UniProtKB/TrEMBL annotation, chains A, B:
Protein name, UniProt field: Transcriptional regulator
Origin: domain of life: Bacteria
GO annotation terms (biological process): negative regulation of DNA-templated transcription
Domain (HTH gntR-type): residue spans on this chain: 1-69
Taxon lineage: Bacteria, Bacillati, Bacillota, Bacilli, Lactobacillales
InterPro entries: Bact_HTH_transcr_reg, Chorismate_lyase_/UTRA_dom_sf, Tscrpt_reg_HTH_GntR, UTRA, WH-like_DNA-bd_sf, WH_DNA-bd_sf
Length: 240, 240
DNA sequence: AAGTGGTCTAGACCACTTC
DNA sequence: AAGTGGTCTAGACCACTTC
């Protein structure tokens, strides 16, 4: 076990059980180094990680303090920013199915070429899927993916989980995602497949998703019925 | 100037002008330490920050690489996650005004007490504001704030910027925010003040915002007309 | 003046990847 | 076997806060 991870875990435990009280300052870095039989640099590494977790904050000259929302944040630390693949997001307690509405391979249009950074001879999958959770329509997805980046997608993959296929079969790692969230009136697909009424609102998520190396592999738009989909976001204040 | 900031800036510059090409690996840490006349630890600190910026990534045993989306990300690095105070978000090129629809001080209800972590004798501001940008209705805000945390709010503050008041007058620093984004049908306020029609969708942002020390100071719901408001989110893949 | 966190050096050992 | 990044030590100097 890495030393800084040990220190992190111990401090996290002490915050949770109230040994380090909210608003109070932790022992200073020299004391901690002594207690954990290490050096200040290693203590600082542990503290830095806890700062990024929004559990504590440091003030030069003054000390390191437990944030008042240390517990609040942890209350929500599942589900937040997890909008990455319906299957992974919802977990095992739900029955997830997909109905393939459209699946073809074609050349990309100008917009798709720009978003996915493609050349004119590259091909894209053009997919429409209805996602069904616990036997109810959950979301409607319009997905474009480059064939050369994610080879081998077929109907059996689409019926299960594309992200599962990328992770486990292709052994590629998912990286960052750039999303635009908006509201709109339902379109014909929403009305037909999501059981929306004519003037019902839908929640739209437009996203470009990247692999770990920064190559974009998904350009998609997802529609959620207004009474079902919610997006949860936690923005850390550490960079402000 | 701090040494690791210098190194960051230089590397950032080299990526931007293509001296370090996308997908290629940077010089190894020992070489960089030599070039910048410093030690590996300081180089690592600079690299760590660039990794958090999603500009590069490291692979133990192999090297440090420029991400393919290094430029893509920087294309959007304004505006992303900036949903913090309309005034700050929109900047100086817009004319921002507010119309106060409701402003009173009262005891909180159970929900507000829980979200804002209040005792029964604490008071909250209960505010309804129409935000007007470039002479057009832009958003409708229902805001609750604890009086003891943010003292001294009055109509002159509400007509300008609450966040500006907190930063500059109270000299407190804004921290994290927890948000839930959803879509709904317009309500009576939306129809009256945002000029929504009866069945028009609105984009809803429910949020709790915290000060740097983790104390919650805002519990609010903001309504955007569906053809105006969009929320932009960038999720870094570094923690996956 | 004393206490605190932030930066930096000059080394060492190790885990993992590449060839 | 050689090259790479990750962790860790034992110190030093400094900026800032607190009293």
């Amino acid at each position: 076990m890495l030393k800084y991870v040990e220190i992190e875990n111990e401090i996290r435990k002490r915050i949770k059980n109230g040994y380090y009280a909210i608003g109070e300052h932790l022992p200073d870095q020299n004391q901690m180094a002594k207690e954990f039989k290490t050096t200040r640099v290693t203590v600082q590494k542990a503290l830095k990680n806890l700062i990024n977790e929004d559990l504590i904050y440091s003030q030069r000259g003054s000390g390191t303090y437990v944030k008042a929302n240390a517990k609040y944040a942890s209350k929500f630390d599942f589900g937040v920013d997890q909008y990455v693949g319906t299957t992974q997001f919802l977990g095992k307690n739900h029955k997830i199915a997909s109905k393939i509405i459209k699946f073809k391979i074609r050349y990309p249009n100008a917009d798709e070429k720009e978003r996915l950074n493609l050349n004119k001879n590259d091909l894209v999958y053009d997919i429409k899927r209805l996602r069904i959770v616990d036997d109810e329509p959950y979301a409607f997805e319009y997905t474009k993916m480059p064939v050369n980046i994610i080879p081998g997608i077929d109907e059996s993959v689409l019926k299960k989980s594309i992200y599962g296929y990328i992770n486990q079969t292709l052994n590629k790692k998912i990286g960052a995602a750039y999303r635009i969230i908006s509201a709109n009136k339902s379109n014909q697909d929403d009305q037909k497949y999501l059981e929306c009424k004519k003037d019902d609102p839908v929640l739209l998520v437009n996203q470009v998703v990247f692999l770990k190396d920064g190559i974009p592999f998904e350009y998609s738009e997802t529609h959620h019925p207004y009474n079902k989909g919610k997006i949860t976001v936690y923005v850390s204040g550490n960079n402000r």
